[in-house]
Amino acid sequence: MDRQALEIPRIGVRPSGPLDSICDVGDVTVGHCTLSDGAVQTGVTVVRPHGGDPYLDKAPAAATVLNGFGKSTGLVQVQELGVLETPIALTNTFGVGTVANAQIRAAVAANPGIGRGLPTVNPLVFECNDGYLNDIQALAVQESHYAQALAGAGKAMEQGAVGAGRGMSCFSFKGGIGSASRIAEIQPGQRHLVGALVLANFGRLPNLTVAGRPFGRRLADRLDRGLDQGGENAAIVPEKGSIILLLATDAPLDARQLRRLSLRAGAGLARTGSVFGHGSGDIALAFSTAYTVPQLAERPMPAIAMLHETRIDPLFEAAAEACEQAIIAALWRAEGVHGRDGHHRAALREAAPDWRQWLSDTEF
């Protein structure tokens, strides 16, 4: 089945870019390395902010920690300096250190002076815990898997149970990688893109909201009436997952403005039914492709006019809508996966084949 051709619910009213993914923005590309072998169901996803060397030409960026139950690395320096120095990597919780080492090796190979005549590099890795489906203790993610994901980065990205999303769960169904884009009209003749990519591994089924409808409550009722979900009562399990939300925009924003943009990812997350639960690590990062910041002081700093603060609301709206759509894409495009110890996550679209009728039902 072609995951990318699947019909999914359309969120919001703003138009999307041609790919309806984060890859609509600038030269952003995405690559995956998927590990699927019995109890090992995991992987690595890499987002490249541009086609050059992010150590030499840094992308402006900022992050918001909505709930800090996570083990990411590199966030402190991003918050302090407001730039990315490596591609953004996503993986499972126990793979963070390995992937960070791989990022350092790749940066040193491209710039042998790192850590000697040049400053050190700040690896940036985000994680979610895929331990329900994946034997996370196997430490299966290797440095070579980051290299494969990086080498495979392109515009035609896969979504669903791929890369870092392979073992992730969302609202007690199969989650993973989802992406979307929205066009923000700042003023007549001035448009900018906002793209979102999520690693979705969160949510309680009764809270699931799709296009404003209480979708999860209806599906939870069906579960209670006999749908097999691997022995787990999806209606009562506590919130214990995480989500990483990445935003890219071609709008000229500085790091302070990007921090404000990253915060609006939380609006899109909340619309799907998340309450940023105790056990959920919810982190959002936004970056701009409009300019880069040079590593070397001998090179000139960019001279670019930033977007005026009073015209930023359309970007906020586009960010919220794109994040909401990306989460729905992760749910609808993920296939069912069997993992460790007989654990299984079903595809949501298979549990609710009549979802179109549900969303069009005026009494729903």
UniProtKB/TrEMBL annotation:
It comes from the Bacteria. Gene3D superfamilies: L-amino peptidase D-ALA esterase/amidase (3.60.70.12). InterPro entries: ArgJ-like_dom_sf, Peptidase_S58_DmpA. Belongs to the peptidase S58 family. This is P1 family peptidase. It comes from Achromobacter veterisilvae.
